[in-house]
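Can't paste images in this forum, so I'm doing it all in text. The chain is below; anyone willing to post the predicted structure tokens underneath?
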Amino acid sequence: MMPARAAHSALPDPCAHCEARPLSVCNAIADADLGRLAAIAVVSDAPPGQCFIDEGEPARSFFNITAGTAKLFKLLPDGRRQITGFVRAGHFLGLAVSDTYAFSAEAIDPVRYCRFQRSKLRALLDDFPLMEKRLLEVAANELVAAQEQMLLLGRKTARERLASFLLLQSRQSVPCGHPLQRFTLPMTRSDIADYLGLTIETVSRTLTRLRSESLIDFASQSEVVIIDHAALEELAGGMTSIV
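Text version of the structure:
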């Protein structure tokens, strides 16, 4: 069930001043038409630890993350958890064609999102083909991301997985240009381990080793600095003999 604790805001125009718009599919709609999109948007907040999408529940809505970070995960029958991704501002969720959600989404830090009823957004897309095209691009990117994670879990070493993960996070929320050299990792080491298919000990040990090799550094407990981007790229791509 959708959590009753989510706070809903009836803003007059949540789209006009949305900082996530340049990163989102919503930028396909001209300023003059934003009011129509805002009219069907329900703005909600999820505090850390709260699920706002529940796996297996009827997929009646789309979700556009406008602030914060959330983790996407699936639960195995024995209760184990596999994190399938981390999403930040600009990510659009719920595009799967199934009648139910194929994953759960839980806020890592305070998350704000816009929720759109599927029927209302689909009706709106008839008048905005450019936005529909952007949504198809998002769906295609999700398939590519799923294939990349299969490679990540199936063929890469622990060091290669961590290097790939850090490079991916450095590109998050960057619409174009160079990836960030300094960025935050709001997720826990346990979350990273569940995403990469590793133990917490292996994640911590490998991060420490990458730091000792001067590939990365930590500005704080949750802030990473990439020192040698080229070397990290080589490691992620399996182009180094160091194991």
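The first helix runs from residue 34 to 39. The helical segments are 34-39, 118-125, 129-155, 158-171, 189-196, 200-212, 229-236.
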